[in-house]
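ok so heres the complex, four chains, lmk if somethin looks off
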Amino acid sequence: MNKRQLQKQKTRQHLLRIAKSEFVKNGFLNTTTSEIADAAGIAHGTLFLHFKNKDALIVEILDRELEEINRSIQQMIAKAVDLEQLLLQYLNLLQEEEELFAVMARELPFYNEELRRKILFRDSIIRSHFHREIELGIKEKRYREVDVTSTVIFLFGTINYYLSLKSIFIKEGSVIKKFKTSIIKTMKSLLLPA
Amino acid sequence: MNKRQLQKQKTRQHLLRIAKSEFVKNGFLNTTTSEIADAAGIAHGTLFLHFKNKDALIVEILDRELEEINRSIQQMIAKAVDLEQLLLQYLNLLQEEEELFAVMARELPFYNEELRRKILFRDSIIRSHFHREIELGIKEKRYREVDVTSTVIFLFGTINYYLSLKSIFIKEGSVIKKFKTSIIKTMKSLLLPA
DNA sequence: CTTTTTGATGAGTATTCAGTCACCGAGTTT
DNA sequence: AAACTCGGTGACTGAATACTCATCAAAAAG
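and the predicted structre for the whole thing:
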């Protein structure tokens, strides 16, 4: 790879990094291509040399992020021994990239089909693990006989609600951190016999 | 009131009605002032004769809607004898104006301070009634000793999650109708002793 | 050393919208 | 009936913003 190609690669990576931080800061919908170019210190037109359009940029960023999240989730599942640990580790994962998850939760209904599908697919994977874990618990009589699907949606609905209204729930810091224990507590009280 | 003033009143009411149906159809953010004017059969400029700007229009529409909803809620509370009935009636209320609630759930994070405050204030009123009802149930030993605040947020978070992703959860018809029974069932299993 | 290639530039284009304003004509007043 | 008022009109403006393209200069190729 010669000097030119090397520089191009570097610019591209730089753009991806800056774009992600801008998206996380203001959301995908409210970040303009000019803002990204300015923040990256390159000309506006250069952005379109590296990415077909704004959508292609966000898709590439999300693909990378979702892939990394999937890796973390796989590790998590391998390690977690029960639902409480799984939930705690999942919440920790969310907390680490909370700004990004908050943006996705808030903007999901406005994304195009492709993006929505990718995000919801990632969601469905982790959801299915919770589903399985709860079913197992019921079979082993550790949990009460709840409606598993509804229970899982209650959990994810609540987490997404917290995330999408993050800035309203708290001034700064992590919503997940703030509500982690009460989420776990309520899930336990839903599942464990009295 | 003379002929002119009468006509003005009529145009204004007509605009409010058409604007609401457009907002419900495509959301507030994705409805243009031209679309509303076209649908109402008036000139684009006329809209700004009746309302200072697009925001003033949505604020007036929401004020009317929220006021009516408040009236319904007051009636509901007067009649409801227990949590299950209260919840069922609340879900019925949501179902009646589901498109509007779905738009609000989806777009809330993007509204300005004033609109957000109004919507969240209405939410907090109904939430406080659930809170009180659950506390009472715990005191009277009908319910288990759950964390009341978390339980209420679980309920509202889940409902909002369903609403904001309405179009993803179902093709057409009512999400609330579809999930009503499982929401109630899960709430009961959360609150009632095993 | 000359020619060709190509990454980068940024002024310019196209589009979408909210909001304005000079003007019209029906209705009201004098 | 003349003068005035005011609701309505729609072409126009200005702002925002995604995307293009003629041009440049440095690097690569011949």
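quick notes: Residues 4, 7-8, 11, 42-46, 49 of chain A lie near DNA strand C (CB under 10 Å from a C1'). thats all i got rn
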